[in-house]
Specification:
The structure holds 2 protein chains of 2 kinds. Chain A is α/β, with parallel strands linked by helices. Chain A has helices at residues 5-23, 47-61, 78-89, 103-112, 137-151, 166-182, 199-211, 225-233, 261-272, 301-315, 343-347; strands at 32-37, 66-71, 94-97, 117-121, 130-135, 156-161, 187-192, 216-220, 236-241, 252-258, 280-283, 290-292, 326-327, 333-335. Classes of the chains: A alpha/beta, B mainly alpha. At the A-B interface, strand 7, helix 7 and helix 8 of A face helix 1, helix 4, helix 11 and helix 12 of B.
Chain lengths: 364, 307
């Protein structure tokens, strides 16, 4: 990522210039200024793309009351701190920092700008003016698993994963549990590519999984490569982050999509009304942060109904994807029958559940 | 089992081909005594140009031509700066990579998320239907055959043609070559342009066949691997070829191992392709004298006719 610095320098110059220009423009009923910091280019699909779509949704919902600005492709670390500080300096009143690695920079800058509000996605540190928010992506993964379990003929699903951190492991396990809830014989094969974003490697990993019999693929990486490869190799795929049906019109069965728009709108509205408080939000289907993408017509009606019913149960709090008994894939019981996993245990998940093949790289 | 083996061979060739193009081009450039570190940038510019043209015209092969030309065009900026204006090659090459990364991102803005029809494997109807041999020999991307042809061409040109020997001589001692009347700068310009074209072709292969899409920085560092490969292959084309396939094969074997559930830390496996390629190529070229003989003596040094 270090090779990208000249670009972020350029951006920060732009931000600084924009800041200078806006000093004179601040008036009593001036629009509320909201800044966003993105870790990758906005692009057309993926993590950042969903945040940017939400930014636009919020801007539209609060038409005329806000101005927004985003800085994309900001490396985590020192660069991030500078970009966040410059946004705060140039009068941005609420700043969303949308990557885990922005946690410490956000906290640091927040202490220097106590009157500015900050919200950091996917982190765990808060402050009097820093809230955190994240989504229960695993709920969508469980539903995706149901679809995969119904559609696989080989009973092998392939999972292209980035790094063995709890966030990703949670997704693999939820997917596998969902799949085996309708197809107890199905298994998940996982390939770790050790990169969030490398279309070439993601494709190689997908090819490998297909060559070993996987006929439904999903991924926890950031490009569209896996869905495209599934389309080319005539297998199925379940997209993550965004609806990628245009990349795999036949392959994509459905998608687990992130929807931040309503949340951003609410937070910004609260800030404008002077009601903003630093929150700690971990919402899912109920809060509208996770939605399933459109179903491919090849998914049978009863499977679609089952997904919708399960989604409703999750939203109503009647069902949790991690309800015991949970056994790991070495036959140790991790949660007794009938119990529901705690958030703390979820956030520390370091084992594969039954049905995932192989050994988790990070496991001791 | 045999299916796995065939899949592995096919995937290895496909993965290695990207490195073969870029590294062979860089090898010719370096053999002429010019070190162009801009491979990553030229690959990305080739990728974006190829993708844009294919997207606009609907002809993927036209995109391949455009990508090749764009890589070459970018390399000429480097040539003017280092060969005519005698700028430092290392600094200029690094700058070229950074420039290429930014330029490609900017140029591709309007094409992110577009979908083009990728260039599919050849698969001639009868031949590719043959058991084992069909899949092994005939079911590859046309780029795989193109890269093998390029390898033959480079090998033949460098060591079996007069022009190739002149290029090698210029890489060894531009002063001597100049003294006996060879046009050092003109040959170096051509070598740089060829290297750029190969890098551009490699990028076009990525964007139009291997992972058909355009996104910023999609080559993800493969240009740097190609650069390293040239050095570790001791500037020998066949070792570049072997090294590229080795790199591809180890990457894919570790993916296969993971998918089979073999319990090795994936972080270790992720490191393997690099480690294996370095170790193997270092072992085959451990003879210090042979390295000195193979490395172009004037590599990276500016040449001026008055000097």
């Amino acid at each position: 990522m270090s090779v990208l610095w000249p670009k972020s320098v350029l951006y920060s110059v732009l931000v600084a210039v924009a800041g200078l220009a806006s000093v004179t423009a601040v008036a009593a009923d001036a629009p509320f200024k909201v800044g966003f910091v993105y870790v990758s280019p906005v692009g057309d699909a993926g993590w950042t793309s969903q945040h940017d779509a939400a930014r636009k949704e919020m801007e539209k919902a609060l038409d005329g009351k806000v101005v927004t600005k985003y800085v994309e492709n900001v490396p985590e670390g020192a660069d991030a701190e500078r970009v966040i500080r410059e946004l705060a300096q140039s009068g941005y009143q609420l700043i969303f920092t949308t990557s885990f690695g922005y946690m410490n920079p956000t906290i640091k800058v927040a202490k220097q700008f106590p009157k500015t509000y900050f919200e950091h996605a996917t982190g765990y540190k808060t402050n009097t003016n820093v809230g955190i928010y994240n989504a229960r992506f695993y709920e969508g993964r469980y539903l995706a698993g149901i679809v995969a379990g119904r559609m696989t003929k080989t009973n092998i699903a392939g999972y292209v994963a980035a790094f063995p951190i709890p966030e990703v492991v949670m997704g693999i396990n939820a997917f596998t549990r969902g799949m085996r809830s309708v197809n107890p014989n199905a298994v998940t094969k996982v390939v770790w590519v050790n990169s969030w974003y490398d279309p070439g490697r993601e494709r190689e990993a997908a090819d490998t999984l297909i060559s070993q019999g996987a006929d439904v693929l999903t991924n926890h990486t950031d490009s569209t490569a896996v869905v495209q490869d599934a389309e080319a190799k005539k297998v199925y795929a379940i997209a993550y982050h965004s609806d990628m049906s245009k990349y795999g019109p036949h392959a994509q069965l459905t998608a687990v999509t992130h929807q931040w728009g309503a949340y951003y709108t609410k937070e910004v509205r609260d800030a404008i009304d002077g009601k903003w408080k630093p929150g700690s939000v971990w919402g899912g289907i109920r809060e509208g942060l996770i939605k399933m993408g459109p179903f491919n017509p090849v998914v049978p009606k009863d499977a679609q109904d089952l997904v919708n019913r399960t989604a409703a149960d999750i939203a109503a709090g009647k069902f949790h994807p991690f309800t015991g008994p949970i056994r790991d894939n070495e036959a140790h019981e991790r949660l007794a029958a009938g119990k529901v996993i705690s958030d703390d245990a979820l956030l520390k998940m370091d084992y594969y559940v039954e049905g995932v093949q192989g050994k988790l790289p990070a496991a001791k | 089992m045999i299916d796995h083996a065939i899949a592995l061979v096919t995937l290895t060739l496909a993965a290695g081909t990207m490195l073969v193009f870029a590294a062979l081009g860089e090898l010719v450039t370096e053999k002429a005594g010019v070190l162009n570190l801009g491979v990553e940038g030229m690959m990305l510019v080739g990728a974006v140009a190829g993708f844009i043209v294919a997207d606009e015209t609907g002809h993927a092969w036209l995109g391949v031509l455009a990508g090749t030309a764009a890589g070459s065009a970018l390399s000429l900026i480097f040539a003017v700066l280092t060969l005519s204006l005698l700028a430092n090659q290392v600094a200029t090459g690094l700058a070229l990579s950074l420039f290429g990364i930014g330029l490609s991102a900017f140029a591709g803005l309007g094409h992110v998320g577009h979908v083009v029809d990728p260039i599919a494997p050849l698969a001639p109807p009868v031949l590719s239907g043959l058991p084992v041999i069909g899949a092994l020999l005939f079911d590859h991307s046309p780029f795989v055959y193109l890269s093998l042809a390029l390898f033959g061409l480079v090998q033949w040109f460098l060591f079996h043609t007069r022009a190739g020997l002149i290029l090698l001589a210029i890489g060894e001692s531009p002063q001597s070559a100049h003294a006996i009347g060879h046009r050092v700068i003109a040959v170096r310009y051509s070598a740089v342009a060829f290297g750029g074209a190969c890098a551009g072709l490699s990028g076009a292969y990525m964007a139009l066949a291997y992972a058909p899409m355009w996104t910023e920085g999609m080559t993800a560092g493969r240009g740097w691997i190609a650069l390293a490969l040239v050095v570790f292959a001791n500037w020998k084309p066949w070792r570049v070829l072997a090294g590229a396939y080795l790199f591809g094969a180890v990457t894919l074997v570790q993916f296969q191992a993971q998918a089979m559930g073999i319990a090795v830390p994936s972080q270790f496996l992720a490191m393997l392709p690099y480690a294996a390629t370095i170790v193997v190529l270092a072992l085959v070229s451990r003879d210090a004298i042979a390295i000195r003989l193979s490395a172009p003596a004037s590599l990276g040094r500016p040449f001026h006719a008055d000097a």
